[in-house]
Structure prediction request, 490 residues.
Amino acid sequence: MNGKMHSETGAFSSDGMRAEILNPFVHKLELDNTYDKIKTAIFTVILLPFRVVVICYLIVTAWFLACIGLYGLSEDDLRRKPMTGWRRALKPLICFIGKMSYLAGGMAITIRGQQASRKEAPILVVAPHSSFLDSCIVYATKMSSVIVRKESMDNYVGKLINYTQPVYVWRDDPNSRQNTIKEIIERATSKEDWPQVLIFPEGTCTNRSCLITFKPGGFYPGVPVQPVIIRYPNARDTVTWTWEGPGALKLLWLTLTQVHSSCEIEFLPVYYPNEEERRDPKLYASNVRNVMAEALGVPVLDYTYDDCKLAARAKQLGIPGANAVREISELRSQLGLEQSQRELQLALPLSARWLAPHEFARALAVPLDAAAQRLFDIFVQRSSGMVYFPDYLLCACFLSLQHAPLAELLSYAFKLYEDGSGDGLSARAFAELTSRCLALSRDVALSALGVDLAGRGYITYDEFISYAQKKAELSFIFTCDTSHHKPKAQ
Prediction:
């Protein structure tokens, strides 16, 4: 099994140069040879059950101790003042049991460097964030206070998280971001002996191939922070959990059926901000990221959590080039296409749809430089060595209209995929379009074609919109946010 991280699209670093690494939100992991498949099957039978039983026993024990430590305390008590006395004395024991649960799963945790005291660094900045197994940092840092959504506390593990006296994020609170920053500032500057606040400033999981943009929330207090880096130096990467890749259960299964795994946690020297960094949390965050990236030996890329969500939405809808939408946006900006929205003007029937590199650049009215060539390479069909231009235009229109309802994107898509007659889309073209920008199944597409009662063999944009307005499952087409309306998969 190849455990190395793979990616499919390029990215640009903050200085505009092409990084040596690819999409940070993609991780591929497959059992690709017979030996690995047989070994995994054997360990699934003889090793996995034993490990699961021991891990469950240890987690339940830690949970039971957390319940004892929290007995008689309300959430308001946990937010008002730090634990003291015997309640706090239970923390080292819970941390020990937590580390043992990882060891029982075959993962040894190695700690390098020394954790600073709260007085030296009230905030611990942890990166890269690549796995749910990163939770081991809580045990390695003596149960520092995590930042957690309040909704995620209503589960079995909630007691253990509560025992860290976390900083809560309330999803239903319109002022959640400001209130979270306010509480972080209060914790970090308090004279009381609170646990250190532990933050993952990237805000989402990546494949550890780079450090993406750090959110500035944890840097607003302007206090010294201690950077902490996490590595998984394993021959097979069975822990990385990204937006595109294996799910949590598959990763857990493959990790628990490895003979041995390891995790390295390294405490870097405390970072003391200068006056300029204290006044500018974004600058502070960026400079700390640079220090951590240098220690890890990886580049920094100006990706954000919003970029990740945009790529996820594009993939969900089947948009061509979905995995590379962040880079496509950068390239369009470099070529002067983003501001002019030239693609919206080009969204017309084309006599020549399959384009070679020079034809592609000429169609965009840009020189065939490195940026244009890279844009071509993202959409090139390997079998022909050419780009199907409507695919590129559809992706470009998606980026230009990302905040508009999908119905507006559809109006351009109909023009892109029609045969030039202006009558509408044939059954084949309509199925192609709906798979590329709505991720609709062939059955749904054929149902929509049923509006063609006269047997004309085509469907117009107005006819489809009229049809969609009557279908609850297609209501996402008319909203600006499709995150709550997952299209039917093909």
Notes: The chain has two domains: 34-303, 307-478. DSSP finds 22 helices and twelve strands in the chain. Residues 34-303 form one domain. The first helix runs from residue 34 to 46.
